[in-house]
Structure formats: C-alpha cells, structure tokens
Write a structure and sequence with these properties.
heterodimer, A: alpha+beta, Rossmann fold, 2 domains, 10 helices
Chain lengths: 331, 624
C-alpha cells in the first residue's frame, strides 16, 4: 500500500532520515516507534507530503507520490494536538474537507452524520464547539474528520499523548477496534512502546534517523535485533561479568535478559544462582523484586499467585536459562 | 501551462506588494522624518547662507533648554507619583483585604474610559481657582493658595491619576499571577506580611514595574494635552506652537521644532532600547506545577488597617469625584455650571439635545436674546461635525492599521526566520521609536507643499488635511497593532494549517476559514482599542490644527475657551461635560465588547446563546 524506498531527509547539514525503507501492507496497523527526535514524525510527514525527501521515493498503491501535493495524496491525518478548528462546531470540523471537495449540502450532511454515528458522536455533540468536548470526544472528532473524506490510508501522530493514563488505555482499545471496523490501512507514530505493542501488526523502531528493526510486536520484543531495540522495548537487565562468566557467555558481547524470563524459587531443582531479596514493589497483578545476585541487582517480575511471595532479606534461587539471554556485540 | 500562469500571478502579486510596501514606508515614514532631520541642519542665516549649526547655537542661547528640562522634570516626577499611586491601587484592591475592594477597583479603573483631553478639562473644571473642589478645600484650609491648580502642579496632579491605567491593567495581571504557595512558604518560614510583600511579592512584580516606569517616563516626556490646557511649558506644546509660527515672527521656528522633536525621539529611542534589553533578560516565571490562587492578606494591626482603608477611600474619592461631577453637571443648566454649584432642583438635557435661546442684559441695560445660543452636544453643528469627522477618520485609520498589519504578519509568519520577515517587522515598528509629535510634525511640514508621489497634491491644504490625519493616525497605530496581532498569530497551532492543507484547502481558503476566525477577536480588539484611542485623540489633532480637520478633542478644547463670548455658546462647559459623558459611554461599550464579549471562545458563545434561548423560552412560555 505504502512503500518508502531509500528515503533521505536533510535539514541544512542535519540528516534527519537516513536510508529509510518501509513497506506498509493494505489493512495493516503499522507503527513507527522511537524516542523523541529519532525521525518517526519526519517519516510520517514525508508520507503525508509535508516534507519532501532529499532523495528516495514514496509509493502509494504502486504510484510514485513523492512530488504529489499534500491534498492530492488522499491520506487522512490525526494530529498530535488533533488540530481541530476552534472557531468551528464539531459538525463544521468534520464537514470541512467535504466542503472543499464541493459536495452538495445533503451529501455533506449524510456523510457527516454517518461517520459521527460510527465514531459514537451524538447529534447534540455535533452542534457543540470542540472546546466543549472531553479529550476522548475530541479524538473521535479528529478521527471522524480524517475518515470522512474516505482516504486510502490514515496517519496518526501520537494521538494519545495528550490524554491521561486511564483514558489512554481506554481509547487505545477503541482505536484498535475502529481500525478493524473500517479496515483502513493505518500508520501510527508513538514513543510509547506499550501502545505500539498492543496496537500494531507491524512495528519499525527508529533511532537517530534510521530504522533499527522492523517486525511484529513479538519479533521486536522477544527477538530484538539490536541492543538499542532490546533496551528501548520493555524493561531489561544487563548481566554483569560475574554472572556472564558463570554462564560461560561470550565476553565480546553484552548480554541482556528480560525481567519475566528470570525465575525465582525457594527451592530449585535447577542449578540456579543464590540470591537475596533486596526489595519488592507490589503491583497487584504481579510483584517486582530487586534481587542481589553475585553483587548485581537483578529486576525480576513474578506473577502474584498469593502463595509464592518473597520478603526482603529472604534467600532465593534465581534461575537464568541461557536461551532467554539476548546477546549483542560490544561496540 | 497552468503552473506558468500561477507563477506569473504570484510574481506580479509579490512585486505589487513590495512596491506598495516601499511606497508607504518610504513615502509616509522615512521621507517626512528625514526631511525634519535635515531641516535642522539646513537653516539659512541672515545672509541667506546655509548655517548647519545655527539652530543648535540658538538652542543653547535661547529658552529651549527650559522646555527640555521642564519635560524631563515632569517625566521624572511622574515616575515617582504614578508608581506610588499605581502600586497603591493595585495592592489595595488585589493584595490586601480592604473592604469594598470591588467598588474601589471600579473607581480606580475609571481612567480607562475617562482620559485624555476629557479628563484634563474635567480636572480643570473641578480644581481651578474657582473650581468646586478648590472652593471646598479653601473653606477647610483658608490659607490655601486658590491658584494651586496651574502649571507644573496641575499637570503633575492630573497626569498622576490619569496615567495609572497601565498599572490597573498590567500590574494587576502580574499580581494575580503570583503563586500563593510562595507567599504561604514565606509566612511558614517566619516572614511577617510586610516582609513577604517586599521580599517575595514585589521582586516578582519588578519586570512589570520596570516596563511601566519606562512607559510612564515616555508619557511624561511626550505629554501634550495636560501641559497645553493647564499651561506648562514643555516640549510638545512648544513644538506645536513653533509649527504654527512663521519665520517673520521668530527665528527659524520650523528648524527649532524639528530639533525639539529629534531630542524627544532620542530620549524615546534610548528608553525603548533599555526597555527592550531588560525585557529580553526575561521575567520571573513561577516554577510551580500547581499554582495556587492568591489569597488576600489581612492587615492585622488595627492602626495600619484603618490607615490603609482611609488611604484607599481618599484615592477613590480623587478618582471618582471628577467622573461623578462631570456626569451630574452634564445635566445642569448654565448658571449652575458657571457658578460650579449643583442645583439639585433643576435638571436639564439641553447639554445633550436641543437648543434654547439665551437672554442677557447688555452693559447699556438692554435685554437681548441670542437665538439658539444654548445648544446640546448633539444639536451643535461644531460638536456633531467634530464627532462625525473623528468617528470616520478613527474608524478608517484603525481599520487600515489592522488590514496592513494582518497582511504583514501573515507574510512575516510565512517567512519566519528569514531576513525579509525581520525587515518587514522592523519597518512596521519604526513609528514606535519616534514620538507621535515628530511623525505628525514631519507630516505637516513635508506635505505642506505639492508632493509628486501623492499625485502632486498638498496634503495640508483644505480638506486634504483629513487624509493626512488618517495617514498619521494609521502610521502611529501600526506598532501597537503589530504587537497584538503578532501575538494572536503565535496562538495559531501550526498543525491547524497542516490539517487544512491535508484536507485540500488552498492557502487563501485556509487563511479565511481557519486562521482569520482565530485571530479575528484580537484583530477586532485592536481595531476597537485603536478606534477608542483615536476618537478622542488630542496630540495629533492639535498638531494638524486646521479648520478642515477639527477633531472631536479639538472641539472639546475649544469649548473650554469659547464659552460666554457675547452670549454665544453660553453652555459650552455643559456641552463639554456632556461630551465627556458621551466619550465615557463609547469607551465603556468598546471595552465591554473587547474584554467582555470578544474574549469569549465559540464554546462560551454557544453556551451564552443557549442560556438566552432558555431565558426567552421561560419568558414567552414556549418550548425550546
């Protein structure tokens, strides 16, 4: 559906994007993930046409759209701030694109009300000013405005970042089901790895203007190809020399293990490490332990089964399986 | 082909815009002011030779330094008095817990609707040698000098209370922005309320106070209406006098006026540079994540509390007396106004509407009647003419300033961080560096001949002077309009423009449908505030004084002089009072529209509309 071939973007001497290659398939929920300033929004703006690449091409449905003007690309956008027009009512915001396309009034009205119903906006809400809506309702307006012109794909630039934690989780689920319902190809930008993992069919992890890894959420999380990806996605322990030597791991590599891959037992049949519980954080669903092992503090997550709960100072066995370790060459 | 046409149209529009901008900037800003500057050094001596330093020598030999010194003296004294009164009124209404603060605040803010020539003539009416207040004070203190309200004293007194409007607006906002947690923290650490005031509160107000001090100094230096009407020899009235004088009467008056204007400009440039430098250093911003609203401080000492209340209400009386008296006297007949004694039994509307005949006894004992000699402000052809002319000229100038600035700021934002944007902005700010009087004086002298680029017209000739006044009004209001409208443009989220573009809107459509509605309240506010200021503007009207360009303020000034001449215009003072009331109503409506209605966003407007509908339905018994 969307293909980026060898995209380079330069701002003066600064190289914002370096050799970006992306292939978004039809109906896919595709996420650009990375820290601030890594180039994910620049890539999105290159696709939408706000930025023209210094070199490389953008293809949409097989057609080169690199130099096609923004308004002719047929791409809907949901902005980070939603960019709802504050001087217009909700209805006028949604109808804006249709009016520019010079549709007849009845057609505009029908389309606006159809899309409003689909995103769960009432007639009463349509008559309101956008400032009178809650954050979640505003997001729905932004999505409705982007979808009403029937775009081929929809791009979302961190649309949940302005919301509080609870609403973010709620809307994340709504977003996913809406995408499935409309079946529209979606490109999503976020720095929140949890959001990316829960929503996406495919993720590209960006760092300093390049893509470090592209893959499914499972690939990205469990088979991180670079040290940056392993560190950026989820929490992780970097194993120190005392442990890596005991496990006879390659000394020319850095070794990492995810928190949930370490197991803690009172008595182990395996040859585990001797550990002492340094402290614990209680999360309800699970418990996070800080365990001193061979002079290093390891973070471990254990399911809260209500029985096997360890107290600070308690001696435990810590089991690390070599196949759970992710190793990367030292730079 | 299509691309080529749009390129041609864009290129032609750019060239046209550039030429128009250069024409206006060079023709109506640079050339007239440059002419003024060069006129200083091109003075001819008695032999007819050019003597570049003649005016400078004359300056030191004559009385001109006195005017400069007088202006400086006024400016320096005003800095102290205005700050003392300005800070007092804000602390008394916003910081300390004073009974009746809401009423006091309204009284202190009357200068927002009652200022300029109307205020000066109002004070004159009350405080001159036979004024009501002076008579009353003389009864209380018989040793008092009844002539106290003249010259420097009168100007200082009047301007002290007239110039606190900026304190009432900006210092009030600054004090309301203080994080109350910092006050509580200081109290918790053992600081007394006064220690908190001086160590915690005042330092956060310093940047605002500094800006206000500089603006007050410039206002004092460039004072015009108060010195002219109350008789004080400062720079601006002297410039206007010299501009109207001829070399037959005195030595090179035009060059002297130019020199004084340039001296004033130098002071202004230095002060504004200092202000700009200071403002760039930044302001104290609260680092608090959860700012607490300021809670008014009780003065626990009974003595100080009583003193603070007395001080607050004395100030209130000073602010309110002229306003109340002017309103009351505007409904009094001419004998009451002339004797400045309220006649509670006899009220009239003749100062506003209609005419009356005036009967008087001549020195030979004959009874004469002047038909229609007593006339209301809306029945007097001079007054109505002045109102109409000022209304039209102010509206045109305020609209022109807005249109020019909106187009310019749109251009500036399109080319942000580029040299051409900086140059455009600097050109529009140019009049800010120059005192109004210099611009007007330059216009008057430069355009008082046939000028080729205004189609060979003399703009200071007959009705043309109105065009000149409109141009001067527009030019002097550009910097204010630029600062305000630029701030409004900053408030537009860049993503809105991106969104409109993404939905297929052209730049013009985006500007008209998305950007303009957002900045419109600010643009209308700038229009209204500029209109308000120009409608009763005195300085420029006085500089361009001409029978074809008699502005409303000049008509009001004339009312102070023409009363009672051989029975003509017998109620000029009454009409003046009525004019002042009319100005207060107009200003009040404009301020309400700007800050009351105009400040509402779409949501608030829809809410208000809904409430009105509900009220209407309740009244009529209809269902919504």
């Amino acid at each position: 559906m969307i293909k980026l071939n060898n995209i380079f973007v330069k701002f003066g001497d600064f190289e914002a994007l370096r050799d970006i290659n992306v292939h978004v398939k039809e109906g896919q929920f595709y996420t650009f993930l990375g820290p601030s300033g890594c180039g994910k929004t620049t890539t999105l703006r290159t696709i939408t046409g706000f930025i023209e690449p210094s070199s490389g091409s953008v293809f949409m449905a097989g057609n080169d759209i690199t130099h096609v003007p923004i308004e002719k690309r047929n791409i809907g956008i949901v902005f980070q701030s939603y960019a709802l027009f504050p001087t217009m009512t909700v209805y006028d915001n949604i109808a804006f694109g249709l009016k520019i396309k010079k549709l007849s009034k009845p057609d505009i009205d029908r389309k606006v009300r159809d899309i409003a119903a689909k995103v769960d906006l009432s007639d009463e809400q349509l008559a309101k000013a956008v400032s009178q809506l809650s954050g979640g309702q505003q997001q729905r307006v932004a999505i409705a405005r982007a979808l009403v012109t029937s775009p081929a794909i929809i791009c979302m630039d961190e649309p949940l970042s302005n919301l509080d934690a609870k609403l973010r989780v709620q809307l994340r689920n709504e977003l996913k089901s809406m995408q499935k319902e409309f079946g529209i190809t979606t490109i999503y930008v976020t720095h929140d790895q949890e959001e990316a993992l829960t929503l996406s069919d495919c993720i590209s992890v960006f760092n300093k203007g390049v893509i470090e890894q592209t893959g499914t959420p499972n690939d990205i999380y469990n088979h991180s190809q670079t040290e940056f990806v392993a560190n950026f996605i989820g929490d992780i322990n970097k194993l120190e020399e005392a442990i890596t030597e005991s496990l006879r791991l390659n000394e020319n590599q850095n070794h990492f293990i995810r928190l949930e891959r370490i197991h803690v037992e009172r008595k182990s049949t395996y040859d585990g490490f001797e550990g002492v519980i340094a402290s614990q954080e209680y999360y309800g669903l699970y418990i996070k332990y800080y365990i001193r092992v061979k002079g290093q503090i390891l973070k471990v997550i254990e399911k809260n089964d209500g029985v096997n709960i360890y107290n600070p100072g308690e001696n435990v066995k810590v089991i690390i399986r070599p196949e759970d370790i992710m190793s990367y060459a030292k730079e | 082909m299509q691309k080529s046409n749009s390129f041609d149209a864009g290129f032609i529009a750019k060239i046209f815009g550039l030429v128009l901008f250069l024409y206006l900037f060079l023709g109506f800003m640079v050339l007239p002011c440059l002419n003024t500057l060069t006129s200083i050094f091109t003075t001819r001596n008695v032999q007819g030779n050019i003597d570049p330093l003649a005016v400078v020598r004359f300056f030191w030999a004559g009385t001109m330094p006195l005017f400069v010194w007088n202006s400086l003296k006024l400016a320096i004294c005003l800095v102290f008095t205005v700050n003392v009164v300005g800070i007092s009124i804000v602390l008394l209404t916003e910081y300390f817990d004073i009974k009746g603060a809401a009423v006091l605040r309204m009284g202190y803010m009357t200068t927002l609707i009652y200022s300029g020539v109307a205020l000066v003539t109002g004070y004159q009416f009350l405080y001159d040698s036979n004024g009501m207040m002076t008579t009353w004070l003389a009864q209380m203190f018989p040793m008092m000098n009844r002539q106290w309200f003249s010259g420097f004293n009168a100007v200082l007194f009047t301007m002290t209370f007239a110039c606190t409007s900026n304190h009432a607006l900006f210092l009030r906002n600054a004090i309301r922005g203080i994080d109350y947690n910092t006050v509580e923290a200081a109290r918790n650490l053992g600081a007394s309320p006064f220690r908190v005031l001086f160590s915690v509160v005042m330092p956060t107000l310093l940047p605002t106070l500094f800006s206000l001090t500089v603006m007050t100094f410039i206002t004092g230096l460039c004072a015009m209406s108060a010195p002219t009407l109350l008789g004080y020899n400062s720079i601006n009235p002297e410039i206007v006098r010299l501009a109207g004088s001829s070399s037959a009467d005195e030595a090179f008056p035009q060059a002297r006026a130019a020199l004084l204007s340039v001296i004033l400009a130098m002071f202004t440039v230095i002060l504004l540079s200092v202000l700009n430098h200071y403002e760039r250093k930044g302001h104290y911003l609260s680092v608090s994540k959860t700012k607490a609203k300021l809670v008014k401080q009780k003065i626990h000492s009974k003595f100080w509390n009583a003193l603070a209340h007395i001080y607050a209400y004395v100030l209130f009386i000073i602010y309110m007396t002229p306003v109340v008296m002017i309103v009351l006297f505007s409904f009094q007949n001419y004998p009451a106004i002339r004797s400045k004694m309220l006649n509670v039994k006899d009220w009239t509307l003749v100062n506003y509407f209609g005419t009356q005949n005036y009967e008087y006894m001549t020195s030979r004992g004959r009874l004469r009647t002047r038909i229609g000699s007593i006339s209301g402000v809306f029945s007097n052809s001079d007054a109505v003419g002045g109102i109409r002319l000022s209304f039209i000229m102010s509206a045109i100038a305020a609209a022109l300033a807005c249109v020019i600035v909106v187009l310019a700021v749109s251009y500036i934002f399109r080319h942000r961080n580029k040299m051409r944007a900086l140059v455009t902005e600097s050109c529009l700010l140019f009049p800010w560096l120059l005192p109004t009087i210099l611009i007007c004086y330059s216009f008057r002298i430069f355009f008082n001949r046939e000028v080729w680029y205004v189609f060979g017209n003399n703009l200071y000739w007959r009705e043309n002077v109105r065009i000149l006044i409109v141009m001067a009004y527009t030019v002097t209001k550009l910097p204010f309009a630029l600062r305000m409208i630029k701030a409004a443009f900053y408030a537009i989220d860049d993503e809105l423009e991106d969104a409109a573009k993404n939905l297929g809107a052209s730049p013009v459509y985006t500007f008209l449908k998305v950007k303009l509605p957002i900045i419109l309240p600010s643009v209308l506010a700038v229009f209204a505030l500029n209109f308000n200021a120009l409608f009763t503007e005195y300085d420029m009207g006085a500089t361009f004084q001409s029978s074809y360009g008699k502005t409303y303020a000049m008509i009001i000034q004339n009312m102070t002089m023409e009363e009672g001449r051989e029975g003509y215009n017998i109620n000029a003072s009454g009409r003046r009072c009525a004019s002042t009331v009319f100005i207060m109503i107009v200003s009040g409506i404009i301020l309400y529209l700007v800050y009351g209605v105009g400040a509402r966003d779409l949501g608030e407007r829809l809410e208000a509309r809904k409430k009105w509908r509900q009220r209407w339905a309740r009244l009529t018994g209809k269902k919504l």
